[in-house]
UniProtKB/TrEMBL annotation:
Keyword Ribonucleoprotein: no
Keyword Transferase annotated: no
Organism lineage string: Eukaryota, Metazoa, Chordata, Craniata, Vertebrata
Keyword entries, A-Z: Membrane, Transmembrane, Transmembrane helix
InterPro entries: Ig-like_fold (IPR013783), Ig_E-set (IPR014756), NXPH/NXPE (IPR026845)
Record's protein name: NXPE family member 3
Annotated Pfam families: Neurexophilin
Lineage top rank: taxon: Eukaryota
Transmembrane segments: 6-28
């Protein structure tokens, strides 16, 4: 019995010594960190612009886009060219368009080609959309972002159309009639062509307009830094590029933690104030964003069931 009691006393003594060693180690670790817990506010300001560190380190602000210098294989170059061609968007003839000359959905209209024709399930319906500006003048170029659909509310049925930009202010929309009965046509302007050009500019000049953040943690110490495809400045970064797809992703490196200590990722917010006063006129929700374009004639057709022989 006394041997078991002695062993128990020795075990308790060792555990107490181990606890003291761990406590002293943590104390010196926290003291080494100067009792500083870095939060996201030190990296991401209330204006959604990271500038505090660039001021202290006096670095030149330039985008960190190291992935742009990557060497692509022939197949990757072909894929890149194909993707760029797929997202190519028509541009206005002039670099700067006045608001009154931009697309106005209220003045624009659409017509159903052959609205009184005989239609059956499986046929194609053609619609012509005519865009005008705020002065009521026909547009002479394309590039508007339109959405078009056919629908039957009673049947809870709907389908989208294929839109062809004629590059002269006219758009052709083609629908496949998939069900019988009365089918209504709806066309809406999501963004005028002038707004699309602003969005393209922001995509090229401000890829960081939507920013993200990641949290890093080791023990009781944590930091939060900004993350994006491109990061401004010459600060150290953590490279989280996907090794399989090659999709680039970077985060500012924590000041006192390794990159491997990242524990979470989240959306940080949007940078504001990127539009000029004139550009903001192209983004008015009650004027030219997601506004319906009305028909100048019938907006529906009657579809007959498909005849079987």
């Amino acid at each position: 019995m006394w041997r078991d009691s002695f062993r128990l006393q020795i075990f308790c003594l060792l555990m107490a010594v181990l606890a003291i060693v761990v406590l002293v180690h943590n104390f010196f670790q926290l003291e080494h960190l100067d009792d500083d817990t870095v939060s996201g506010s030190n990296w991401i300001t209330e204006n959604n612009v990271q500038h505090s560190l660039s001021q202290t380190t006096k670095t030149t602000r330039k985008p960190y886009c190291g992935y742009k210098q990557q060497t692509l294989s022939r197949s990757e170059e072909a894929e890149q060219e194909s993707l760029l061609a797929a997202i190519q968007w028509p541009k206005p003839p002039d670099g700067k368009i006045a608001f009154v000359q931009s697309t106005d959905p209220a003045h624009s209209d659409f017509v159903i080609v052959k609205p009184n024709g005989f239609f059956k399930v499986g046929d194609q319906l053609e619609v012509l959309v005519r865009m005008k500006d705020f002065q009521g003048k026909p547009k002479q170029y394309g590039g508007d972002y339109l959405q078009a659909r056919i629908h039957s509310p009673l049947l809870k049925a709907g389908a989208t159309g294929r839109i062809v930009d004629c590059h002269n202010g006219l758009y052709k929309v083609f629908f496949t009639l998939l069900w019988p009965g009365e089918v209504k046509v709806s066309v809406s302007l999501v963004h005028p062509s002038e707004a699309v050009q602003v969005l393209l500019r922001l995509r090229e000049e401000r890829p960081d307009r939507v920013y993200f953040k990641s949290s890093f943690k080791s023990g009781r110490y944590s930091e939060t830094t900004e993350c994006n495809v491109c990061l401004p400045g010459d600060l150290p970064v953590c490279n989280f590029t996907d090794l399989y797809t090659g999709e680039p992703w970077f985060c500012y490196k924590p000041r006192k933690l390794p990159c491997a200590s990242r524990i979470s990722h989240a959306k940080g917010g949007y940078q504001k104030g990127l539009l000029t006063q004139e550009e903001s006129l192209f983004f008015q929700s009650d004027v030219n964003i997601k506004r319906p374009i009305l028909s100048s004639g019938p907006d529906s057709v009657i579809v007959k069931p498909k005849a079987f022989t």
